[in-house]
Specification:
This protein has one helix and 23 strands. The protein is mainly beta. The protein has two domains: 1-44, Laminin (Ribbon); 46-263, Neuraminidase. The strands form seven sheets. A four-stranded antiparallel sheet has the order 8-9-10-11, with no helix packed on it. The two termini are 41 Å apart.
């Protein structure tokens, strides 16, 4: 007998029905979905952790980090990835590869792999999507100068908006506020998204890394790796706070992400 025969080949499952070795049905789910507790119905996975390890990009369920929510992107499509971002509207992953000096994108199911930016992209250390105006920002060294660049999501209409960055590390954007944030050495910096009104937000942050924004609370977070603290402030720079409670766990931290329940 075929345990998946009924329900148009789905058997007892809401989506995919697989036949086990003992002729029983095993339900599974497509990308960005996971099994509900009844082990038959798939529910939409509205939050997951996307992370990189040089030659691979992976996505896992936040509640169960051993459960992959996507097929890993790896060689030969990836050589040495440094930064990644995700477009929820089109379910596309964007990443920078410093070995091939390119910025690429693909749907989260691995299809439609494309190179959107190529050539003269050295040491790309920041990548951020403006999901409102559908633009792509990145922080890299080009022609012996570090700068913030912007282009359409398909790589067209490329231009530079911030020049003369000395020691770039991170980049994030706040489209609703029209702001760009980046690190330069020991400083946290801010500018309008067209590059105007550039200024230092905070100094003496001792090797800041992992810029991240809580878009609901309008808070900017980063790791001060030299101090072993997580720091935060309002997105306008006011209200600087130093969170020392995780100092022991931050000796080698290099990335930070703010998870906001309301954004799920």
């Amino acid at each position: 007998s075929n345990p998946c025969e009924e329900n148009d080949g789905r058997g007892p499952c809401s989506h995919l029905c697989l036949i086990n070795y003992n002729r029983t049905a095993s339900c599974t789910c497509p990308h960005l979905m996971k099994l509900s507790p009844n082990k038959q119905s798939c529910v939409v996975l509205k939050r997951f952790l996307l992370y990189i390890r040089r030659s691979e990009i992976r996505g896992v369920d936040i509640d169960n980090p051993y459960m992959n929510v996507m097929t890993a992107l790896t060689v030969p499509d990836i050589d040495d990835v440094t930064v990644v971002d995700y477009d929820t509207q089109e379910e596309r992953i964007y990443w920078a590869d410093v070995k091939t000096q390119t910025i690429k994108r693909a749907f989260i199911n691995g299809t439609r792999l494309e190179t959107v930016i190529s050539g003269d992209i050295l040491n790309c250390r920041g990548l951020a999507l403006d999901w409102l105006s559908r633009n792509l920002y990145w922080l890299s060294s080009e022609n012996d100068e570090s700068q913030v660049n912007v282009a359409r999501l398909d790589g067209s209409l490329k231009t530079s908006v911030i020049h003369g960055i000395d020691k770039p590390r991170c980049l994030v954007v706040h489209p609703a506020k029209g702001k760009i944030y980046w690190t330069d050495g020991n400083t946290i910096n801010i500018a309008n998204m067209d590059g105007s009104n550039s200024k230092v937000l905070h100094q003496n942050q001792r090797e800041p890394v992992g810029l991240s924004i809580d878009y609901t609370a309008n808070k900017l977070y980063w790791i001060s790796s030299g101090n072993g603290t997580i720091n935060r402030c309002n997105v306008d720079g006011n209200g600087l706070e130093v969170l020392e409670s995780m100092k022991r766990e931050l000796t080698k931290a290099s990335a930070l992400a703010a998870l906001v329940e309301a954004q799920c």
